[in-house]
Amino acid sequence: MYQQISKKIVGLVMSLAILTNMIAFQVMAEETKKPMENFCARLDKITTKLDSNMATRTQKLDNKASDKLAKVEKKRAENDEKITKQKTEADKNIAERYAKMQGKAKNDTQKQAVEAFHVAITTAVNARRSAFDSGRNAFRTGMDATMIARKTGTQSAVNIFHTALKDAETKAKADCNSGVISSTTRDTFQATTKTAREKFDLDRKAVEKSHDIIKALAATREAVFEKARVDFKAAVEKATKDLKAAMTVVTPKPVAPNTVETKPESQNSPTEIVKVKEPRVTKQIAINITGFVYQPTSQTFLKGDTVTWTNNDSAPHTVTASDGSFDSKTMVKGATFSHTFTSPGTVSYICTFHGSMHGSVTTE
Fold first, then answer.
1. DSSP string, 56-80
2. How does pLDDT run across 189-210, given as a tens digit for each residue?
3. Is the peptide bond before 264 cis (omega within 30 degrees of 0)?
4. What is the pLDDT of residues 315-340, one digit of tens each?
5. What is the pTM of this model?
6. What are the DSSP E strand ranges found in the chain?
7. 315: closest CA among 339, 296, 289, 276?
8. Which letter does DSSP use for residue 314 in this model?
9. Which architecture does CATH list for 284-363?
10. Per-domain residue ranges of the chain
């Protein structure tokens, strides 16, 4: 999203310079069609029209630039508000899931295991958020600095170009007043303005090199995001594994009457692992992405079931959990993403490319 915003700002800044250039030479193009001997007689009219057109168009473009920048700031604020709401919802979901898990704990050992799981997940979520915030803020800071430098450089090029035009006007008036042939004065004026335009084009191209800086900033941000995703996934997998190991009940194996129980060499006493819940046949749940909508938008199923999302749109999408518990990354057309839900609760998710796309899944 921030790359799209930067492109709009860059285009707007450069349009000011380009249109200013076009205005100046549009006036000159009109004058080249008129007889040379009348150039000095028309010089005041030419410069007055040129100055007036430049002032009017520059003011309009300045107003548009201000409007665009205001929209960018508003969009950034809306995005921050959306992120804050997602964090709040995620915290609420984590708290609800923790309460349910504590209620199902059968003994102190299991309660301690649930508490350890909750601490591990909360720590992982906070670490992921911190990394995302850091990457996002670094990108914004770099973008702001780059855009300021680019705007300053472009404005400098425009000012130099305007000064060169005014110098050309002054020189032409002096030549006309000193009796220089009108055609010679006109040729000198056109040559001077041409040189000014060529210098402006070179200065503008030098400023445009900042595009490479923006690309580098975006790549750095994405690298930070990707590492945060990988670290978060590893932390969640470890916490889940530890929880499953702790949430088992160990019972002694029954001993037959009139027999003596013996311990096999190099082994502990024979035990039978009894899971808290009886195993069940899991199901495969399908959710399609069609017309920029998750279908169905909400889905309820049992713990252990697997949900598979399929992207049927031409546009890329993602399936990204608000609490960070799963993330499909970019899904092109025809791509699928599956996730098995092992804990009860409701998790909302979005498409990071299209903020209006929302869905939720509930595990019972």
1. HHHHHHHHHHHHHHHHHHHHHHHHH
2. 989 989 988 988 888 777 767 7
3. no
4. 999 999 999 999 999 999 999 999 99
5. 0.51
6. 248-252, 271-275, 284-290, 293-295, 298-301, 306-311, 320-321, 336-340, 345-350, 358-363
7. 289
8. S
9. Sandwich (2.60)
10. 2-234, 284-363
Tokens of 242: 């530890």
| Residue with tokens 């949430």, as numbered in its chain | 247
Tokens of 144: 């702001």
Tokens of 123: 């720590």
Q: Provide φ and ψ at 332, rounded to 5°.
A: -80, 180
Q: Which residues of the chain have pLDDT under 70?
A: 1-37, 54, 57-58, 61, 65, 208, 249-280
Widest distance between CA atoms in the chain: 135
CB-based contact 96:364 (threshold 8 Å): no
Q: In what order do the strands lie in the sheet with 320-321?
A: 298-301, 358-363, 345-350, 320-321
Both tokens assigned to 251:
């019972």
10 Å CB burial of residue 345 (0-12, 13-18, 19+) is: buried
H helix runs in 178-264, sequence order: 182-207, 210-246
- Residue 232 CB neighbour total at 10 angstroms: 21
Structure tokens at 77: 């604020």
Tokens in use for 263?
Answer: 């311990």
- Cα separation, 307 vs 297, in Å, equals 13
Distance CA 239, CA 174 (A): 84
What does the pLDDT read at residue 223? Answer: 94
